[in-house]
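sorry for the late reply, my laptop died twice this morning and i had to redo everyting from scratch. anyway the thing you sent over, i finally got around to it. pasting the sequence first so we're on the same page, its 488 residues, then the predicted structure underneath. double check i copied it right bc i was rushing
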Amino acid sequence: MRQTIKYVHRGEIVELANVAPTTTVLNYLRYEQALTGTKEGCAEGDCGACTVVLGELANDKVRYQAVNACIQFLPTLDGKELITVEDLKLKDGKLHPVQQAMVDANGTQCGFCTPGFVMSLFAEMHSDRIADRAHIDNVLAGNLCRCTGYGTIIDAAMSVAQSGVRDSFHEQEAKSIALLEVLQKDSGLRLTWQGRSYFAPKTIDELTDILLDYPDATLLAGATDVGLWVTKQHRDLATIIYLGQIQDLKNIEKQDNGLKIGAGVTYSDAWAPLAELYPDFGELIRRIASTQIRNSGTIGGNIANGSPIGDTPPALISLDARLHLRSKDGPRELPLEEFFIEYGKQDLRQGEFVEAVYLPFPKAESQFATYKISKRFDQDISAVCAAFNLTLKAGKVEDIRICYGGMAGTPKRASKTEKAITGKSWTDSTISNALSRMEEDFQPLSDMRASQRYRMLTAQNLLRKFYIETTTPEIPTRIVGERGLANA
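ok and here's the structure:
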């Protein structure tokens, strides 16, 4: 395997050797390259001041996406194009169209957050999406302005979206494609630095071989969780295996009766296919995090880290998803709910990794909803996440699957509550009788996000909310504003 990192920057291939595997892109830019336009605001992927843009080949084009440099490890740049705010200035010294729009709209005050906003808008300018106000709000949800200058920043964003302007990166796309194609032909990456190791295999077979030799390695996907282990907890990670170069883990495949989603599929790439099948699931993906985090974080990572407040497992479990695992010994499959054993413990054998999750297509007679309750509407961790999947026959409950996050040490079904409902008429009386059983299903904790009492009351009320939505849909139960339908 290769011993040096290679990425594209400013129209050239950059090659790096002898670097610490957990050096963040942010620290490399600021302290090694003196590119201080990229700022550190939170070091946890929350504020967006560190936003840079990465380019990758997709469908014979370069796809540009905004990411948080503060939690991206430097070796993950391998095979990609890096763009920072310094790169936007034109050769004649003029401002980039996004920068000029910010100036024209007076879209900056103290200026600290401005580079991050500019980079998010630059990435959006290079997408094919239609940018209305609701979409712009989504794009910028991961960029925080402490001077509260959002109005003028949004004006600048709308101006760029409506202008259809092109820039030098559009003009130089053919050159970028050629450079990225050269890097695409390289072998996988192996770095060693002061007793630490970093691997970036390109195939599943390579991954299983490396795991055989390093069964205790840290598996790295989007770094949206592992990155914080380094920036906030200051952990030393002896061996890292990066999964982001394995194309087979990034595939979404329609099968006869469902959708197979590779563990390396990002939230951004899963969003549209999930929303097509289950609109509420799509809305949940929108609220999971910011654009930068959705561009990095993966469905498989959200499952594999086993967090009791991960947002996708409750929805997936309620939909009877199955998990595909793999090791050198071959594949293994199990219901997703059986993967979570207890807090911090999953059914993952030595040398095994999450390969994919299989999601059944919706049944014509089923009704699904999922809700995310958090202190802040955008890009916040859930206090309670709930998902419901109901099948009725002649007014009676033939089947119901109820799963919650934040109510136990793992994502967990409300089995006693389900039993109290199944076979009964789908009525207010049935729901009222079942609510008391929920206290037998869960004994939630009190923490910084919510008290035990709040969590229980919220979980019970979400079941009642689901009942109202499935019986009297004309009654408004969702927050509706400029952003459209809200998942709350």
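The chain has a mean pLDDT of 95.
thats about all i looked at so far, will dig more tmrw
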